[in-house]
Amino acid sequence: MAMTPLMKATYDLIGLNYNASRKADPQIFDRLLSHLSPSPQGLYLDIGCGTGNYTKEFAKRDYRFIGVDPSRAMLDVAEAETSNVTWQLGSAETISLPAESIDGVIATLTMHHWQNLEAGFKRLSDVLKPGGKLVIFTSHPAQMKGYWLCHYFPEMMKHSMLQMPAFELIEQLLSESGLTIATTEKYFVHSNLQDLFLYSGKHDPRRYLDPNFRRGISSFSSLANKIEVNKGLQKLQADIESGQIDKIISKYENNLGDYLFISAKKHYDSIPGA
C-alpha cells in the first residue's frame, strides 16, 4: 500500500531534527544484537529505520545492513552520515528485495506506522531466508495503559494505543506469515535512556515540558490535540512543583514492561509469496 500524503507529511515532519532527541540507546542496541545474533557474512534489513541510528550501530561492527524507510527526509539524514549501509525508500509492505535474500530483520518502534500489518509481515517473511529472524521492539496497548502519561494526556494516549497492535494479533499475523515467536523479553525504561521515544521520560517527567523533546515523538507531533496537550502540560508542571507527580507515578507502577522485544523465526518450509 502506498504511503498517504498525511502519512508522508508526518514522517517528514518528525524527520526534521529527529537526531536531536532520537539516538541509538546502548542497552536497546545490545538487546537487538543479542536477539538477532547476526553473522558477518549475512545481509540484514532495518525496516522503518528512520535516520538509521540503530542501523549504523550494526554497521559500525561490520554487519551488512539495508535500511528502509518511507521518509525521504529521514533517509537524507541517514545517507549523509554513513556510506557503508544501503538505504532504500519504501515500507514493510513494499520492500523491493528478492525473495529469501535477507538473513534477518529488525523493526524498532515502527509497526504502528505501517499501513497494513498483515501485508507487512508477509512481505518481510518473503524476503527472509528460511530460519531467518525478525526482531521487533514495540509496545502494546496493555503495556501503554500502564504509562502515567495516561493521567495527563488521556485522549492522546487513547489514539496512540489504537495504533499499536495487541500482542495476540502480532502473534497471529506472524504465524499466518510463516513466522513463529521464539522469545519475548520485557523492557523497562531506565533513567539514562538515550533514545527519547514516547515513554522515555518515565523517570524524568520534566522532559515532557520541553517542546524539542516532544517534537521527536509521533504521539505528540501527529496524534495529540493541542488543547489537551497544553492543559496536560500545565497540570504536569503543577504536579511536579507540588510533588504530587510522585503519587501519580506510583499509581501506574506495574510488571507488564514498558516495551517488548519479540524475536520470531521463519519456518524452514515456508513458501515465498504464499
State the end-to-end distance: 18 Å
CATH architecture of the domain at 5-143 and 159-199 and 256-266: 3-Layer(aba) Sandwich
The secondary-structure element order is HHEHEHEEHEHHHHEHHHHE
Mean pLDDT: 90
Radius of gyration: 18 Å
Helix count? 13
Strand order of the largest sheet: 3-2-1-4-5-7-6
Please describe the biggest sheet, giving its number of strands, its sense, and whether it closes into a barrel: 7 strands, mixed
CATH class of the domain at 5-143 and 159-199 and 256-266 equals: Alpha Beta
CATH topology of the domain at 5-143 and 159-199 and 256-266, by name, is Rossmann fold
Describe the structure.
The chain has 274 residues and is of the alpha/beta class. The chain has a domain at 5-143 and 159-199 and 256-266: Vaccinia Virus protein VP39 (Rossmann fold). Helix content is 42%, strand content 18%. The chain is built from 13 helices and seven strands. It has helices spanning 5-15, 26-36, 53-60, 72-81, 117-127, 141-144, 149-152, 154-163, 167-176, 211-215, 218-223, 226-242, 245-251, and strands at residues 43-47, 64-69, 86-89, 102-108, 128-138, 179-187, 259-266. Helix 4 links the parallel strand 2 and strand 3. The two termini are 18 Å apart. The model is unreliable at 1-10 (pLDDT under 50).
